[in-house]
Amino acid sequence: MGISKGLLENMRIAIIGGGISGLVSAYKLSPNHEITIYEKSAEIGGLLSSYHREKYSIEKYYHHFFSGDTSFLNLLKELNLSDRILWLKGSTGTWVSGTLYPLTTPFEILRYPHLSLYDKFRLALFTKKAKTFDTIKLDTISAEKFLTEQLGEKIYRSFFRPLLNSKFGQNAEKVSAAWVVSRVAIRSDRSLGGERLGYLDRGFSLFIKAISEKIKECGGEIRIRTPVISISRDENGWYVNGEKFDAVVATIAPGLLRETGPDIPEVPYQGAACLTMGLVRPVTQGIYWINLYDDAPYGAVIGHTCFAPRDWYGEDIVYLASYYSGAPSPHLKEKMIKDFCRKFSVRNEEILWAEMASDPYAGPMYLAGYKELMKTVSVPGLVLAGMFSEENYPERSIEGSVRAGLRAADEISHMARKMEVNM
Ligand SMILES: Cc1cc2nc3c(=O)[nH]c(=O)nc-3n(C[C@H](O)[C@H](O)[C@H](O)COP(=O)(O)OP(=O)(O)OC[C@H]3O[C@@H](n4cnc5c(N)ncnc54)[C@H](O)[C@@H]3O)c2cc1C
Description:
Layout: E1 12-16, H1 20-29, E2 34-38, E3 50-52, E4 57-59, H2 70-78, E5 85-90, E6 92-96, E7 99-102, H3 106-111, H4 117-129, H5 135-138, H6 143-151, H7 153-168, H8 177-186, E8 195-200, H9 205-217, E9 221-223, E10 231-234, E11 237-240, E12 243-245, E13 247-250, H10 254-260, E14 269-279, E15 289-292, E16 300-303, E17 316-324, H11 332-343, E18 351-364, H12 370-373, E19 382-384, H13 398-422
Parallel strand pairs: 1-2, 1-13, 2-9, 6-15, 13-19
Antiparallel strand pairs: 3-4, 5-8, 6-7, 10-11, 11-12, 14-17, 14-18, 15-16, 16-17
Bound molecules: flavin-adenine dinucleotide.
């Protein structure tokens, strides 16, 4: 994939956003071009950035990857990180009416009292079939309509609707069937002992560090705490915050990009708030991922140290996850902690630390008809690549953002070759 220096026209390229999409395009372009990454936060990594505690780093938002994430796995290989990949068991459970039900093994699923045997059978068949559905055709159909037709009103109301509510709130009814089917399909590769999910030894900060070092080694510049506030163009090129470039790769939400100048269509986004806690003891009964079906200011509890080894951290790590539209509810952190302590019988003094991360642009809302919004924007010299783009449809992921970054780099390289031919 690498291009040797000197073959192509050397261009000055501004990359807006230092998340995965921006870092990957910078990594690919920096051997041949003069790259400047603009990142508004105090650190790079975007949604995959980490808290740096005294003895360890931990992602601000829980993350894992999948065996089918081939572009990400290839990138790890290029960065000499393959030996840091771990495939760990991702056990699951459900919290209903004050009780935690493990749902990892077939026996646990059979024992689960809130669905009949027939409903479980229908769900299992649907999960197996999920990979065969054509998501393009499902884009304009709502998840509610599709799931009710496929599985009946009862399974939709009792099983899927609470999950959609916790993720999309008032927009739950408008979510596309394509999104739901892709979520089910990605989780359908389960063995009898549950799913194997990818994680990096000691966390993803290793990957962010490795890729940013490569960019810097090739002369790329990473400007943190530098939000882009204006992008404009004249016959000589592009201007980012007044500085001249030959081309721009924009990886930020289209709505944010519009605010800086370019006239591009908006894509609806949702926000995520994620509370990370260090605890003195395990509290999720050994379960990694728990979906909550009861009323709570969070929709999922993620027992990170029931997934990654506890001894890396010397304490238990738990995430509480919540999605929102617009702004998170006031005092969300306090409300989450209070509810969590009550439900999981945790005393306040057992929480060693708690940090809240919140981002109103945590992912596009894949409402029915989303594909129409993604119509290619063709502005010469401006390449769009991020969570909103084709590679991340119908659900954003690390893999999707890696692929978006690679495509952006290809487009710029193609542009540079054309410039060379025309000279
Ligand atoms: C709670 C949660 C859990 C997730 N879990 C998983 C998972 O387990 N597996 C998985 O595959 N994916 C997961 N994801 C998705 C994954 O994190 C994203 O798809 C990916 O990190 C997006 O990378 P990106 O570079 O496209 O966008 P971002 O990470 O959003 O990067 C955009 C960057 O642009 C910066 N920026 C914004 N505006 C400006 C500006 N004006 N000027 C300069 N910089 C700006 C932002 O600060 C940010 O750093 C999860 C996401 C969330 C929210």
